[in-house]
Every structure is written in structure tokens, then in C-alpha cells.
Amino acid sequence: MKEAGGRCLFVGALAVSVWGAPRTSQDADVLLLIDAERFPVLVRSLKKHGLETSALDLADGLRTRTHVTVWAAEGRDLWIDVTMAVSESERSQVLRGVPVHGVAVSTVEDTIAYKLLFGSAKDIEDVRSIIRRNAGRVDESALRSRMQGLGLDFRRYRRLKLDSRTE
User: Fold this and answer.
1) Element (H, E) at 18
2) Cα dihedral value 33, 39, 42, 47, nearest 10
3) Are 6 and 50 in a shared domain?
4) 22 and 97: one domain?
5) 8 Å CB contact between 109 and 139
6) Is the pLDDT of residue 167 over 60?
7) How many Å apart are CA 7 and CA 59, to the nearest integer?
8) Co-location of 40 and 86 in the same domain
């Protein structure tokens, strides 16, 4: 990634494993901040590390704002779902990443906010585990700001926080 001039941020289950209850996932979710003209360099760099995608797939993902799957060259039992950081909110999220064991991971506040945005039952369960594990350490002012930026009501977090105390 460094030679391609981009920055990546691990989100999803990996971020939840850092901030909440460790869990497994079939993939790794990455938010990628890189200039499109650097895609060929990125593809070559990934290939050196046994990962496959194409500059065309990356460009399509950028254009359609969908994720691009990067496969392990051998066996295809490992993959990374890459989403381009396009919006100002996504770009800022990448820049706020927290270093954990040599990789950047989404902050606890960003992880909570995006899990609440996606809102599946598993996402809500993830938020509850993050709340339990980080009692008193979540910057609620930053979280409120992130949630407002995503069009979310902060009271949703507050209700989950209260519910988590009684579990």
C-alpha cells in the first residue's frame, strides 16, 4: 500500500474485534484512500503479496461506490472487500485511523457510528459488545458528531448504552 501512495483502514469485524467482542468473519473489510491514477501501482503491489484484483475493478468500484473484492491468489479462501473512501466523511475516517499491530483500524467512535448506520442485528450486537468493553472510554462528543454527519440520532446510542448496563 505504501508504494502505491494510498492509505487503508480496517473496518467491520476486524475493528469490532479490537474494540468489542472478538469475532470471526469470512473477509476483511477495508476502506481505501488512494488516487485513481495509482491503481496500477496498487495492483502490482498487491500481486507481490499474493493478492489479485485489477485496476479496472478498482475503477468500477470507485465509479459505482461499491466494494471490490481482492482475492488471495492461492485457494481463494481469503479475500478483502475494499471500498474506496470517496465522501469527506469516509476520507476523514481513514485519516483518523488508530494504529493497532502495524495496521490502521477505525476508531471506536467511527466503528460504532457506521455499525449503527448499517443497522443489521449483528451490527447492533457488535455495538453492544463495544459499549460493554469500552465503558467510559468512548468520546461521546466525537461520536455524536460522527452520528449527526451520517444522519443518525445520538439517542439510539444512548438507548443501547443504557440497555447494555442491564444485560
Assistant:
1) helix 13-19
2) 140
3) yes
4) yes
5) yes
6) no
7) 16
8) yes
Residue 21 three-state SS = coil
The pTM for the full model equals: 0.89
Query: 3-state DSSP call for residue 37?
Result: helix
Strand duo 28-33 + 79-84: pairing = parallel
User: Which residue from 82, 154, 66, 84 is spatially nearest to 112, judged by alpha carbons?
Assistant: 154
- How much is the average pLDDT of 113-126? 96
Q: Are 89 and 68 in contact (CB under 8 A)?
A: no
CB 21 within 8 A of CB 134: no
Which amino acid, 34? I
Instruction: Map residue 8 onto helix, strand or coil.
Output: strand
pLDDT tens digit string along 40-90? 999 998 888 888 888 999 999 888 888 888 877 676 677 889 999 999 999
User: In the 8-state DSSP scheme, what is residue 98?
Assistant: E
